[in-house]
Design goal:
146 residues; globular; mainly alpha; 0% strand
Length: 146
């Protein structure tokens, strides 16, 4: 979900292994971080430091999705089971390894998207993901529609 992805990336970058990048992000509010990600990226800047949207990695320059199927994290177990069945593979149960703890304890989406301007920034940054992967552009609706 783009709303969760943006939070996870922001919190992850605050603890990033390159200290100067982590310090820079820790000095930003969540809204500032979204604005930073929307700025044109200098040619020398690595995409990961100013992560675009998720479509950046799965689509060509025209926006066409280059993979046959995208599994949604929110339904990963059931979609993965269906994929392995369709491919004729034996049943494989997905486990959990290295569960993320990057979201601040006790925080919710509302804490990050507390004003319409922040929600608008997120919608601009992740517009291709909403269109390509069937997610609602409302922060209160975390389930993909497609």
């Amino acid at each position: 979900n783009p709303f969760d992805h943006a939070i996870s990336y922001y919190e992850f970058m605050k603890e990033y292994r390159v200290a100067r990048h982590a310090r820079r992000v820790r000095a930003m509010s969540f809204r500032d971080h979204l604005e930073y990600r929307l700025q044109p990226r200098p040619i020398w800047d690595k995409p990961f430091l100013r992560l675009p949207n998720q479509s950046y990695y799965l689509c060509d320059a025209t926006g066409r999705v280059l993979v046959d199927q995208v599994l949604h994290y929110e339904r990963l177990a059931e979609e993965f089971t269906e994929l392995t069945r369709r491919l004729g593979l034996p049943a494989i149960e997905l486990g959990v390894a290295r569960k993320s703890s990057f979201r601040a304890a006790g925080s919710s989406l509302v804490d990050y998207y507390d004003d319409p301007a922040t929600v608008d920034l997120l919608r601009r940054l992740y517009r291709p993901d909403f269109e390509n992967f069937g997610y609602s552009d409302s922060p209160g609706d975390n389930q993909p529609t497609g």
